[in-house]
Amino acid sequence: MTVVKPQEVRPLPGQLDNILVFNSNSPEVVQTEGILLSTFPGQGMATSAAHLNQALEGRFDVFAHHIAKAKSPEDLKTLYMGVVIHNPGSKTVRVNVLQAASYLSQPDAPFIALPSFMDNQLGTVFAGPGDRVTNDLLRGKRQRGWPAQIKIPAGESRMLFNDSIPVKTLDPPINGRSTLARLRSNGPVYMASLAMFARTDARGAERAPTLAEWEQLLKDGSLAGPRDKAPTPPGQAGPLIYSRVAGVARGSVWRAQLADQSSDSRLTIPETGKAFSYVLSSVARGAFGTGQVQSAPMVVRYPDTAYAAHGNYGIQYSLSLPLYNPTAKPQEVSVKLQTALKNDQRPGNLQFLEPAAKQVFFRGTVRTRYQDDQGRPQSRYVHLVQHRGEQSEALVTLRMAPRNIRLVQVDFIYPPDATPPQVLTIQTGETP
Questions:
Q1: Which of 185, 233, 253, 266 would suit a FRET pair with 240, their CA atoms being 20 to 30 Å apart?
Q2: pLDDT tens across 189-220, in order?
Q3: Is residue 366 part of a domain?
């Protein structure tokens, strides 16, 4: 049954920052060796069109999500994914690895069934590699095994990581890896993510590719395959194919203070028994009538890949809500993250399903920071699993005194394997 909530849906204040994101997500399923994403110049390369000629410098992010799937039960070679960083300058460049994590679907983070709402203070609750990497980075972690700094001499290259996606022992033989890293360099660099099957040593045992082998593939190779479906050009009528992302996007964090139009310091809560929502991770044809598409724009991309970073995978939302009770009565106010039915034709209402559909549309950890009703500071991590059309429990519920202002801060990193859009809902109900 469809449940309609006739409430205001607002565009989200603020905007994405200008930090560049190396976004390697196409092809999602990789079955042939080659270049996944290269920002190197095309000059001197065998396939110049596979190189986007975009230097990265200062703060930038790396997001990568790819799946290995055996072509046949007999072809179980291990696929490796490598990210090469090159220093084109005349001085040594230092790349600081501020935060980073990389996990496999099997065995690191299997897609297990979890309750819709779980405490996750210890960070041990996750389902899927995208869920787990965003959980780590939300807490500011650098996973064990990642270097704190990489020094790259002039004119040379180094590996950011060189990791396998094994399928040999799995039934069916399919596995995925999600990676997210926040970096800072003191000079311009070029980067490339590449896919190569394991090489074998003299005894026939598999081994990881060497830096020299990765560099050779970068120089002589073409784009990895099979290619995903090409995207629908912006504004074209008919069926919409978003496609997968392969390029450099602009925007790592969306920071915003949610406040009244007449004030930048408070957000008046809804009237008793009512609610309003802000759209999150909105996409073309999925903005709930607000007209706001939050997908990060692409600086450079391959012609057969997405026109924008639809879904904002790996992007952090950092939202401040200075809630204000203008009434003479105490009010109970809740803040929720919800997965309403995607649409762009119904401004002023949201649609949900009761019961919610079976498809999981969001699985990830949300952090809330606030003072509780006893005035004690709280920092709470909650893991959500939301199905299509699910309304969800409250992240925070506050009993607000008359004329009281209470600040609630909501942070999450939009997890890979989620399906946008969602909304952040503020709802009021009078306390007894």
A1: 253
A2: 999 999 999 998 888 899 999 999 999 999 99
A3: yes
